[in-house]
Each structure stands twice: as structure tokens, then as C-alpha cells.
Amino acid sequence: MRTYGKKLNVVSPAEAGVVLGYGPAIRLRDRGGCNHFQPCTVEPDMGQRFTICGAARGAVAVIIAACAVTATGRASAAGPDGYKIGAGPWKVASQDLVLRDEKRQKDLEVRVRYPAVAQDAPGRFPLVVFSHGAGGSRDAFPDLTAHWASHGYIVVLPTHVKPLDRMADVTFVLDSIGALEQRVAGLRDQEGLGRIDRGRIGIAGHSAGALTTQMAAGVKVRGAVPGALLEARSVGDPRIDAAILISGQGTTNRMFTDRSWSELSKPMLVITGSKDVAAIGSETPASRREPFEKAKPGDKYLVFIEGATHSSYQGRGPAARLDREQPTDAELEMITSVTASATLAFLDLYLKDDAAARAYLGSEALVAFSGKKATLERK
Known about the structure:
The protein is α/β, with parallel strands linked by helices. The chain has 2 domains: 1-74, no CATH class; 94-378, 3-Layer(aba) Sandwich (Rossmann fold), CATH 3.40.50. The chain is 25% helix and 20% strand. Helix 3 (166-175) packs across helix 5 and helix 8 (329-352) packs across helix 9. The protein is globular and about 50 Å long.
């Protein structure tokens, strides 16, 4: 999913620390030491990044302008029915920062992606926390999380350092909403009021991050409560309204039992595929379906994509080299586009009560969009 949108959008560093533009790929990268008030980072293909600092900004602007002449959008990867597959109405800003958890005596690195709106504009946005897989970081799924932000979501991506700290990291992020609004200028309006809607919060995760997501959403797990290590209990956060599992876990993981999902009433979207086997772990495509199959009925969805491998949902990247099989470019385009359509429709329905999203998820449009390479089940 190299190109989501139809135009290049560039704003000044005074408006936002990082800006995404949409158009043909430019493979330039500068890891210089610009502070977050100075650089303007443009991501023309939603994945390839370069940073413009100081005097270089004018020179690169010429390149951007040239690209804008040839930038084109696309209706879909396989058909005409992708859900809001183009860039959203908002430019996207991003800021990296470190949050200090005094209770745990720990620093937590996070990346915040958010709609770059004028400070005098009204509006609050739902929050989505994204949890990366094992060995990953806040760099995970840049295209997908930027796509969500362009459609009106504030996305926080923490870097989990210790596996046992993951759930506490998520809780701390939610506890730190006020701090995020204070430290990220784009998350406040001109009156100093925060833009994060505390009543609309989702969580999503991939692989180990999907395990974190299940725990945070309230799926019952073993080993999470001292004194009851063999009993499956919920340690979920009641502030979370909806959950997205990408390449998650079933009962092959000993933390779960057949009854782990039986009382989960929150909306949940499960995404997996026919080749979704990781380099480590015992999960299979069949076991990754179980969170949907064993869950309490009501607002549950399963997207199963033919040919999807463990790392394919975020496109090409270092993690993809660990997959046993490599999708073709066309297959990868379909997989990432289906993932974008399904996840955004789910978020729009359960965090924005969007009627179009409800109709989309209730139809066979996603299946048609995939060229019948994906199925969508509901209950």
C-alpha cells in the first residue's frame, strides 16, 4: 500500500513537527539531529521518509513540487470498493517524546501521530494506542497508523522494552493523556483544551502487540494476577472501547483457555491469513482465528486474507525477511489495502458511530475489493 492518497500536502514546522505528503516514492533519508521544532518530514509514499532541515528545505521543496505534478491516486488495489482507501482530509503530524513513569521508575518512548489542524479550529479526536510486535518499536506500521491519523485519529505508538511491562505501558499511556496534550502543541487548541477524546479510545496491535491488545481489551489470561497464576482472569482497562488484533494468538498460547473470550463484550476485529506463521512461536492460521471463533457474539469480525504472511500487513520492511514465504508486490498491495480498509471501517464504526462504516462492514464490499482473496465473517 505505497500510495494512499491523491496529493502532496506540506505544512511548515511552525504548524507541525512532521508532515506526510502523498505521491510517488522518493527515497531520501536524513537522520540528522534536528530538534522537533525545526524539521519538516515528508513521507511521499507513506513509508519512505526524508527530513528537510534549514536551508535544505528550499531545495527539497523543488523536488516536492515536481513530484506533485505526477502524483496520482488509485481507486483500490483490486476493485472499486475499498473503504476510504485514499488519504483523509487532514494532513498528518508526528512527534516523538519520552514519558517518565515515576511509579515504575521507567522512561517510555512514544511516537504520536495526529491530524494537523489549525490551533483555532474546533474538534476532538478519538485515540488509538498501537502495540508493536516482539523486537519492534514505535516505528511499526507507519503507513497504516498515518492513514488512520489522516482520517481523524490520534495514534500513540509506545516502544515496549520488556515483555512483562507491555500491559503496564498501555495503562501508563492512557494515564498520560493529559501530559501528551501538554507536551505536543498540536494536541491542544488555542484555549489550551486537549484534543484527545477520552470517551473514544481504541487499541490495536500486531503479533505480540495483539496479545497486549487482547489483555488490554479484557480477554481473560492466565498468569496475570499474582496468587492466581493458573486461573484465567481479565486485567483489561475499562477505558478501552474497541480492539484490533492483527496476527494474534489463540489457545496454542498457554495464557489463554477455551473460555478466555467467552465474556468479551467489547467490539473486536481479528485479522489473519493463510500463511500467517511466525519464525518463532506455535501459532497457526487456524489458531489465530480463535479469538473471533471463541468470542462472545456481538460486534466481532474476522478478516481472513489468502496469502497473508505474518509480517505482510504492514508492507515491505525488515521484519518481512523473517517470513517463510514472500508475497508478490501485487499480493502485498492487496493485503495492506484490505488491512487499511477493514481497520479504518472498524474504527469509524465503533469510535465515531459512522453509518457508512456500519454499512461497509455489513456488506461484501471488502471481499470484492480484495478480488475475493479475503473473507469477512461477523457475529
